[in-house]
Amino acid sequence: MADMARKQGSHSDITGPRVRDAALRLIARHGYAAVSMRQIAAEVGVQAGALYNYTPDKQSLLFDLMQGHMQELLAASRSADLAGDALARLAGFTRFHIAFHLPRPDQVFVSYMELRNLSDANFAVIEGMRRAYEDVLEDILRDGEAEGVFAMADTRVTTRALIAMLTGVSNWYRPDGQFDTETITTIYWDLVRKSVTA
Asked: What's the average model confidence in pLDDT over 45-71?
């Protein structure tokens, strides 16, 4: 009996992540509105009704994907090398953002393109997490203005523009393409630096 309980527990531990992975792949490929719970179940290899052991509904699944991505991003950003003056911290943020996002194109796509499909309550949670991440960059930009090395019309708009630019790399970058990650990071750092330096 104990062995059966253990197997069921292990199966649950494996199937839950498989459901999330399948949902992520399908939503990134086809869009949230076009993906059904039945398709997700087929991708995982379970009956559609079995999905409800892992998530109450498709909206909860989408929210879990976005919240998981933002939790990982915020946790990783707390460990990022953002030491030194504002220019060094901005370089560190640029390197961190690209390194974190490039290996996660599906998560990035879903997290940014499917916001419109969140319920109001779920949107508020994700928006709050996004704001917390944006604040990391905005603090750097404000400090740079105080140091006299950055100049911009509005720090909030600049913050969002820079994050959109840096995140956009995930839409087109391919590991087997013309540029390696280091070259891409160097090019983007040059763009970021030139857009804010006084």
From this structure: 92
Domain boundaries, the chain: 1-55, 57-196
As a CATH number, domain 1-55 is 1.10.10.60
Say how far apart CA 133 and CA 38 lie, in whole Å: 34
The CB-based long-range contact list for 78-82 (8 Å cut-off, 24+ gap) reads 82/136, 82/140
The reply to whether the predicted model has a pTM over 0.85 is yes
CB contact at 8 A, 41 and 48: yes
Query: Which one-letter amino acid corresponds to residue 167?
Result: T
Tell me the C-alpha distance between 156 and 195, whole Å: 14
In the predicted structure, residue 8 carries a pLDDT above the cut 50: no
Tell me the one-letter amino acid at 174. Answer: R
